[in-house]
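User: Putative clarin-3. Structure?
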Amino acid sequence: MNLYKHGMIFGTFFGSCLCIGLLAAALGTRYWIVSNAVRPNYSKSGGRIFIGLFEGEKNLNFGFGLRCETIEVPALMSEMMIYPLWLGTVICMCAGILFSAAAAVFAVINTATTPIGILTGIPGLYIWNTLSVLFQLGAIILWALQYHKKLRFNVMNEYERSHEWTSNGMAFFGLSYWLVVASVLLQFINIILIYSGTSDIREKKKATKPVIEEKANG
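Assistant: Predicted structure:
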């Protein structure tokens, strides 16, 4: 491969590293869901809730000033979420990071050498990037299901609901969720770069086919 095409392959290393950073940031932040909260019969009450995969934050005003509280999401699972959807989201996120890391490692290897193995060579780059995309899409879809089935209706615990707090219809996807969407787009760009960077290989294969056929016919 010429310098341009080496650059295309090596560019996917940076893309994969950026994807890892985005996914790690999404895992560790509290903004998968953001919601307002109100007490309809209390004009001075209001609040804002941030829900992550593991932790969250509630800022509620009961009418006596803002009260901030850290949420341990797994502890409130039965009240707010569907456990299999939450677990599936976490697993897909971790798998996405793992396969993005594999894509980054093999991008460097393919820039420095020309591996002949399927998993270590150019086909492997397609495989690792595609697997990362699929798992990240899995996380996006599972969390969207979580939102549509549970979180858009309620992010309040039983105590808060007993005091007339509601978040029904006020929740939306936060920054952490959109970081995963951005990572998927970057991973797609990686696949495009790989395709562009290996165009000469495809051309050589096409050029050798007629020669082989002529020898076979001769």
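The mean pLDDT is 89. Residues 3-196 form a domain with the Butyryl-CoA Dehydrogenase, subunit A; domain 3 fold (CATH 1.20.140.150).
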